[in-house]
Amino acid sequence: MVISVAVDVNEIAHLGKDFPWIKPSGCPRCEQPLWWHGFVLAYFSCLLGAVYLRRLRCPCCRAIHRLKPVGYWRRFRSPATDIDQAVTHRQNSGRWLHDQPRPRQRQWWRRLQHMSQVVLGLSVPAVSAFATLSARGFIPVSRSFYCDTSGIDPPPYRTVSLPPVS
Length: 166
Ligand SMILES: [Zn+2]
Prior knowledge:
It is globular, with a radius of gyration of 17 Å. The two termini are 31 Å apart. Mean pLDDT is 82; it is low at 148-161. Helix 2 (80-93) crosses helix 3. By secondary structure, it is an alpha+beta fold. It is built from four helices and four strands; from the N terminus they run E-H-E-E-E-H-H-H. 28% of the residues lie in helices and 16% in strands.
């Protein structure tokens, strides 16, 4: 599972493996104390190179967890706030932001439309679609309809079956 922690991704990049990660109080699954379990490389849109994120292992349920700077969704390299900004801007002005890659913004927009349609039943995403979907635990611009409930009680993911994108 991914455990979101309030740390600065720039600081992690700067300090590398010396970054002082704080061990979570217990396994999100079984609440037993966790053991450090090496590092994993991860990429973020705000940084050029990869950064080392800390991994943990639960000796009780054998789950492997990783710590992730808060504000990033699973499998997303841009912080959630950047994505929110881009789709909100597109919604309000019909334009793309200049400081974000356009293909990426298009992809977020398309996925938001698709998810608004399927989950909320809207033909055009409403201004509140992004917030509504987030509040329900969805990643509003994800292609997979997993709920990002990292850090919340198990079960970790709720799957919703969907028709394919037309
Ligand atoms: Zn465990």
